[in-house]
Every structure is written in C-alpha cells, then in structure tokens.
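Protocol step 4 of 6.
Sequence for L-rhamnose mutarotase (Chitinophaga rupis) entered exactly as in the expression construct, tag removed. Do not edit the line below.
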Amino acid sequence: MKRYCLALDLKDDPQLIAEYEYWHKAENGWPEIKKSILDAGITEMQIYRTGNRLMMIMETNDQFDAAAKAAADATNPKVQEWEQLMWKFQQPLPWAKEGEKWVLMEQIFQL
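Step 5 output, structure tokens:
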C-alpha cells in the first residue's frame, strides 16, 4: 500500500465552495468517476477542506501508477467532463507547475 497526500485550492467564493462540496457528496458523485479511481488501483480516497484549501489523501495498491492514471483519464470522456466541471471551482496553488492541479505534498513528520 502507498499513501499520497495532495493539495489544491478552491476559488475563495462561499457559493462555489458549497457547490463543490455538493458534487462530492456520495449521492451526487458520478459512478464513472468512482470506477476510474478504483480501476487505477486507488483503494481509499478522502478530501478535507479548511477555508478554500483542500487536502486529498489517497491510498493505493502497490501497482498504482500515477502516470498511467493520468493517461487513462486523458482518454476518458467522462473523466474529462468531470475535470472541466471541477475546474469551475478550483485554482492552482501558487507554486503549482504549468497545467498541474493537485500538488503532491511532502511528508515532514510521522509519529
């Protein structure tokens, strides 16, 4: 098992943040998106928010390959539709690379 923590900012607008949270409730999520996540080897995913900052925790099987997931997403029309919808609410972190949304966080402490 591998664990990844990633960060992203939402646009600092309470109405957009509420709508983003609406889309992430279990009953409003798209089944095709859940399937693409599970098919990639992601076994657990959680998103936390404080203000407009998001943190995602992903746990994956040992075969998970982020580049393969990105390639599969790029050719999946439903994932692309979801990403376009989500970009309405999201904004890159100031230090994100060109075209990067979620930024991988570096672990600096463990108890």
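Step 6, annotate. Residues 2-99 form a domain with the Alpha-Beta Plaits fold (CATH 3.30.70.1090).
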